[in-house]
What we know:
By secondary structure, the protein is mainly alpha-helical. It is built from 19 helices and four strands. Strands 1-2 form a two-stranded antiparallel ribbon. The chain has a two-stranded antiparallel ribbon with strand order 3-4. Helix 3 (31-47) packs antiparallel against helix 4 (53-71) and helix 10 (233-259) runs antiparallel to helix 11 (287-310). The longest helix has 37 residues, at 109-145. The protein is elongated.
Amino acid sequence: MAQLWxxxxxxxxxxxxxxxxxxxxxxxxxxxxxxxxxMAHVKxxxxxxxxxxxxxxxxxxxxQSILHDVEDGTLPITEEYEDIHSFVEANLIGRxxxxxxxLHTGRSRNDQVALDMRLYTRDEVEETxxxxxxxxxxxxxxxEENTATIMPGFTHLQKAQPITLAHHMGAYFExxxxxxxxxRDIRARMNVCPLGAGALAGTxxxxxxxxxxxxxxxxxxxxNSMDAVSDRxxxxxxxxxxxxxxxxxxxxxxxxxxxxxxxxxxxEIDDGYSTGSSIMPQKKNPDIAELVRGKTGRVYGxxxxxxTTMKGIPLAYNKDMQEDKELVFDxxxxxxxxxxxxxxxxxxxxxxxxxxxxxxxxxxxNATDAADYLVNHGVPFRDAHxxxxxxxxxxxxxxxxxDALTLEEYRAESPVFGEDIYDAISMETCVNRRLTVGAxxxxxxxxxxxxxxxxxxxxxxxxIF
Length: 465
């Protein structure tokens, strides 16, 4: 067993305790960040004269060779080591001798793992943002192609008013745009460097923490060494942001599942993103959408787990904090995988425009516009509401749609109705007269789409780093 702390102990750690305590099985995930952090630390030690220039070069060369060998597969990371830090240090000493033992000068595993996790998370926040941007590009394409595709809008899962597919997709564009904004905030807040905090109280070595932070792309060093080794707020924020992303994906998945049913038939999911039944040959199941919906709870669980772990921990570092990694890693992989798969499914989705239009026409989605017609002809809205409500009841009894009623049938309820009622309640009129900002009218949607194009091409808005 390769350990960094054996001097104080007179007997070997019990094997069960060792395995329970070890983290190599999961913290090997950030081997690259561990080595990059060590290289920055060595450069700083050499700059400060804590290491000689020759010692610094030897250690850097050894670290670079370890990184190369791990990445090309010639140096496997095995569980004989307690954690990724001991793996790197033991292999470094094995390659360059005693000078490798100076790597840990002015550093603790506490600030080392805090750095590794922060570097790893920063990379993953950026990758999550990139995946969301790809999803937004697909949404924008669908919007551009469907500003005239009429469909029913729903409240309470009942048909409410006619909208367009572009308008419906725009709601999700806004959600995922907010998700990217949250990721931008998280990255900005977390981009400070814990390295140099030591175990909790800094060090007597003359470290240049600003230089180390600069080498690693941070805005500066963390200002309190106790906070530096015990802060996990950025992980909680990231888990919260991922939970919100998954909630948005789950809502979207639920709609696709509904739209894919035999009763709706609004969409056809591509064969590449569907599965069949082992017994029912006619089935084509929306498994990707269902799995995205299901995996949302998994990410929520990671957030609740870390919140629960952190709620009772006193300053500074405690071993409980090792529990931040496995669930965070799983949540990151789950969220990224779901965003990527959902993007592919959405990009290959076929929209049944005829079914959408038919559904809007058959659900009295133009009833509000019929009431507005009366209001525009001097009828108080409350009276207009009652008149159209009775007309809807009549239509249900007769099995008709509002636009199929004769003028005589309209005038039986109110003499105010004229021939122009049919144009007033056509689906196209109902949609395109709604021109306020954020409404589904074609002119309003074109303006929003232009804004979205600028958002995705503007480097300041379209990227978080």
